[in-house]
Automatic annotation (TrEMBL):
It comes from Dysgonomonas termitidis. SUPFAM superfamilies: Acyl-CoA N-acyltransferases (Nat). Keywords: Acyltransferase, Transferase. One of its GO terms (molecular function) is acyltransferase activity. It is an enzyme of class 2 (transferase). Residues 7-93 form the N-acetyltransferase domain. It comes from the Bacteria. PROSITE patterns: GNAT_YJDJ. The keyword Transferase applies. Its EC number is 2.3.1.-. It holds the Pfam family Acetyltransf_CG. This is GNAT family N-acetyltransferase.
Length: 98
């Protein structure tokens, strides 16, 4: 699988991959006190089943960690990804259980 570049489109409050005419994305809300809420993940149907959503989740979580933010995973896809990769719980805001 190709290694896609993660774009943090802060103006639109979303992380993106640009893959041809398609744009997988993760929408977020970021607070001024160092919290980020991942609210929605979308992978175009044409790209499903290729591991692109997992690559997107991994890169988004790595970016959040590099920025020192506390994560609240409201999106079911991201929450499911963290359940499958529990080492990412290290960036989840204390007290958040899912």
């Amino acid at each position: 699988m190709e290694n896609y570049q993660l774009i943090d489109n802060a103006e639109e409050s979303r992380y993106e991959f640009h893959i041809g005419k398609h744009m997988p994305l993760v929408e977020y809300l970021r607070t001024d006190n160092g919290e980020i809420y991942l609210t929605h993940t979308e992978v175009p149907v044409a790209l499903e089943g290729q591991g692109i959503g997992s690559q997107l989740a991994e890169k988004v979580l790595a970016d959040i960690e590099s920025k020192g933010l506390s994560l609240v995973p409201l999106c079911p896809f991201i929450a499911g990804y963290i359940k499958k990769h529990p080492d990412w719980r290290r960036i989840v805001m204390k007290g958040i259980n899912f």
